[in-house]
Amino acid sequence: MELFVALAYSAARMFIAYLLSVASALLIGIPMGRSEKLEKVLYPIIDVLQSVPILGFFPFVITLTANVLPPPYGIELASILLIFTSQAWNMILGVYASVKFIPPYILDMAKIYRLNLVAKLTKIYIPASIPAISKNSIISWAGGLFFLVSSEIIALGSTNYALEGIGTYVQMALESGDMQAVSLGIIGVMFLSILTYILIWNPMYSATTEVSTGTEFVPKIDRPFKFFWRRLKIVAGNISDFLIIVNANLSNKFLLKKPSFSKKAKLFTVIVTFTLLISYILVKFAEWLNRAQLEIWATGYSSLLIEATEGLLVSLLRITVVLIAGFFVVLAISYLLYEKTSIYRKGFVLSGEVLSSIPASLWWPIFISMISLGFPPELVSMFIIFQGAIWYIFFNIALTGVGQVEKNIMEMAKIYKIKGRYKFFNIYVPMLTPFVLSGASSAWGGAWNATIVAEYAILGNQIISLFGIGFLISEATYSGNSQALFLYILILTSFIVVLNRTLWAWVYSYAKKKYHIIE
Predict the structure, then answer these.
(1) Could you give phi then psi for residue 458, rounded to 5 degrees?
(2) Can you spell out the DSSP letters for 105-160?
(3) d(CA 406, CA 416)
(4) Where do runs of H (alpha helix) occur along 197-293?
(5) 0.90 exceeded by the pTM?
(6) pLDDT, tens digit (0-9, with 9 covering 90-100), for 289-315
(7) Beta bridge partners of 465
(8) Domain holding 132: CATH number?
(9) Number of Cβ within a 10 Å radius of residue 430
């Protein structure tokens, strides 16, 4: 019974965080996709935030929620916000990309017919965003589960919180040495992942997209969901029509009465509200820095900087090896499955959803017996990094890329008996390159986030540590060394952003020229 209660608590937090992620994706992604000025400001911020490991949010989340709201509300909100940081960023970027690349003729028609903001939102922007939300929901749900343990057991120095949930259940069982409970907890997470995939995510993706991937699972479940989706679209359409009429009537009614200073007043209100919010955050941050004893920072700064640089390079080597190997493995497997019947693809996508959603911390208990027999912990660490990264590429290929493969080109290849390595590198890879690149940047950020668990783990009385930036961040977090944690996060995010703006920008540019990718 305790296991089911823990699963229920975790599922509730996951769904609340997911709804917040969807709302944020629409509220941020749509304006960012339509305004170049907002894009220039918000895109770098999102780029930085998706590079921050979940432990990097601990001080800010605890300060802004757990230390402000009474228990248990503050820490529950903190847990939900931490899960949110594992789900939101790819949702926001997915909506942003969908809105940004809406065909120009649709927007021209909206101008000709003078559609107001409500009409544009309900008839153009939100419908254009739904396929991206459907696809990224699968990835975001897996990402939230991957860091579930870190979100339910929050530790920052002497500050420790453990919320009831499946992550806490497994961690407590592990500390007490109850491996049967650990196994049941892992099975419970897998059950939750399979259940949500079959009942929610796969039917939702199938119902809201026109691309057939050959991965639709359990058609009898798809049918009621599609029926529900059709009814929902009718209801949503009626509501949007009503809002459009109300908005138009209000606009006409107050058009002449609107004072000339209304726009300035609105702008002033927004600026004041934003300034107060930022001021509050800065005050709380200053209090946190004061507690961190800045005089210690000055004396230990140089040694921390050297240590962080060394850890960064070691982790970079692990991540590079994992991403290169994982890229070819996923691409090769997806090609082989494309050549097979759809039942293999269905099973493979479901397996990917299950494997990608197993919390990162639970992989160490799974492999602990093998490690005691001499299995290298380094390989387990790299496998966990693989788990945290490669599924972004996998789902982009399996859910979107396979459905976009030109059937006529593949038929021509079959007629002319083009197969094997030549077909793979000259037909299959070029057609899937846009989808690989779409997931590559998220995989890059996911790999860095996974290092905090892959390089440091506490298994009961046993501590497994492998030197790297993830190890340094984890150690600083659990020891309460706030100044070291701040420096490590700053160096890591700066490094990732610089590489994103240089190396990844060059990769995208090269791929666009070589494979004639049109955005």
Answers:
(1) -110, 115
(2) HHHHHHHHTT--HHHHIIIIIHHHHHHHHHHHHHHHHHHHHHTHHHHHEEEETTEE
(3) 16
(4) 202-208, 219-254, 262-291
(5) no
(6) 555 555 455 556 777 888 888 899 999
(7) 456
(8) 1.10.3720.10
(9) 15
